[in-house]
Design a protein that fits this description.
This protein is 39% helix and 16% strand. By secondary structure, the chain is α/β, with parallel strands linked by helices. It folds into 2 domains: 152 residues, Alpha-Beta Complex (Aspartate Aminotransferase, domain 1); 255 residues, 3-Layer(aba) Sandwich (Aspartate Aminotransferase, domain 2), CATH 3.40.640.10. It is globular. The N and C termini lie far apart (45 Å). It binds pyridoxal-5'-phosphate. The site of pyridoxal-5'-phosphate has 13 residues, from helix 4.
Amino acid sequence: MAIEQARPDVFDGMALRADFPVFDRLHRSGRPLAFLDSAASAPKPRVVIEALADAYGHHYANVHRGIYELSEDATARFEAARAVVARFVGASSPREVVFVRNATEAINLVAYSWGRTNLTAGDLILSTEMEHHANLVPWQQLAAETGAALEFVAITDDGRLDLDDLRRRLGRRPKLVAVSHVSNALGTINPVAEIARMAHEAGALVVLDAAQSVPHMPVDVVELGIDFLALSGHKMLGPSGIGALWARRELLEAMPPFLTGGSMISKVTLTGTTWAEVPLKFEAGTPAIAEAAGLAAAIGYLEEIGMANVRAHERFLFERAWSALRAIDGVRVLGPSAPDEHAGVVSFVIDGIHPHDVATVFDHHGVAVRAGHHCAQPVMARYDLPATTRASFYVYNDLDDVARLTEAIHATQQLFRAA
Ligand code: PLP
């Protein structure tokens, strides 16, 4: 890793690309790939690929079972990875971190385990119009099964949560507030500490969907004052198939298991079972063992850069992209304009051109973006759009990518003008 500071708060993303084998290949256009789809899933640095290979090659056995050296080694490494995740999000103990497959599973775990135990007809769950389906559909299911009501905090025209609407709805004393830290469809950074404070004053617990924040900025569960946090490894340079749920320990201890079977038990007889201590109570079956090592390596890589630097870098790229795109006729960018309220996710529409066509033309130019509803159909409905095109930045992006993005927009407009 070579981090050169082009500005005090901005490093050379281009130099980091050498750490990611996927950038070794040229796009079929003959140009380097401008990868602007990290919000969907991020490429992996060599250290993560090597950690996976090392775990599978030299330290692999099932965990929490074997009374032999290799299994004890695998178990120690798995638990060390849990401690790394715990430290990274500011948890007070690794026991507060449950390994799951992804953020979706983490949220489902809360909905099934906490929700079905604690909610009943007449209770209120509060979410927002800004959510990814992962932080929406589980609450719909929970509401349908328990008879609880489900309401959504409105979003403003410029893509921020309407805090007056939140305040009003909190007056009805919801039991749970489920909110995303960063919107994957708009790029909005929500004021989570303030939301959590307001929610707690109203007697609600707070579930934070941090799938788009933990990879990109410092996140500390204690400072934010939340109760549950969901993250996905694959969006933070780690392997797919591993994510984490963080929850306050007393909540985890009071919750019944989500999945049942092997590994999560203390004692089983034919007439009944007692559960293992947390977090193992929530980890039924063989977990993603090598992937945990890969996730720890990804966190190590990000920590070496420094999460404040990652955030500053993306903030800088957002600012440049925002002003470049706003200067192009016929381009509309969604979400808040203030860089402090906007992550490195730029969602936009080009007049008269469907986002799928935009992404197809971009691909011819070696620019990879996402087009569609971004698993946030209510957000699209809120702005009366079928879809948007989304460019998202990460550590390996640089001003060159912003230039490639604007160049691709001009080329797309030209092509459709000529057609
Ligand atoms: N929440 C947000 C805000 C997301 O952007 C995503 C994925 O795009 C998810 C949750 C779900 O993540 P996963 O598919 O890894 O479970």
